[in-house]
Amino acid sequence: MVKQRQQSKQSRSHYTPVIIIAILLIGGGLTLLFFSPGFGQAQPITINGQSITDDQLALGETVYETNCAACHGIEGEGQPNWKIPDQNGVLPAPPHDSTGHTWHHADEQLLGIIANGGSMPDSAMPGYQHILSDEEMVAVLGYIKTFWGMQEYDFQQQVTHNSN
Ligand code: HEC
What we know:
The chain has helices spanning 2-35, 54-67, 69-72, 107-116, 134-145, 150-163; strands spanning 46-47, 50-51. By secondary structure, the chain is mainly α. It folds into 2 domains: 1-36; 43-163, Cytochrome c-like domain (Cytochrome Bc1 Complex, Chain D, domain 2). It has a two-stranded antiparallel ribbon with strand order 1-2. β1 and β2 form a beta hairpin. α2 crosses α5 (134-145). The N and C termini lie far apart (77 Å). Bound molecules: heme C.
């Protein structure tokens, strides 16, 4: 009996270092993942390589909700059937979230559309150059990026980088 108990104690302590190493590995891995760029909001949003501050994002949210949400949706969901022109041949507003194609375009192009309006002859997209300041247009584009997933964000950052 005594011998048996000693044995089981021995085998338990034999595993202890393995368990400690496993915990350290998992903990270390999670810490690395958390601090690596591209993990959730840990990554700062940039426009043309310049970081957007929390204050700018808050400004962008106000600008978006006041000027853009009526067409593009409060969560950037766009208008229904946005790929199908209406009876006058005018396209509905596209989504700005991951389901749309805003994230396919470089920052400079998106800022151009916001300033000058849509490129289609009968576009419903107004130009905001006389309504919003440059700072407000950068802020609203920063806010639109909060609708994207990590993949869309990384893709669009690459497109912007390549276009500069
Ligand atoms: C009256 C409705 C309307 C409002 C208000 C509006 N948009 Fe649009 N927007 C559209 C339509 C429609 C399109 C697509 C048609 C086109 O490009 O000609 C569009 C396209 C865009 C695009 C290009 C998207 C892409 O995938 O190519 C951007 C960026 C954009 N809008 C940003 C904004 C921002 C920012 C605001 C607010 C400051 C805003 N829009 C307000 C209707 C609107």
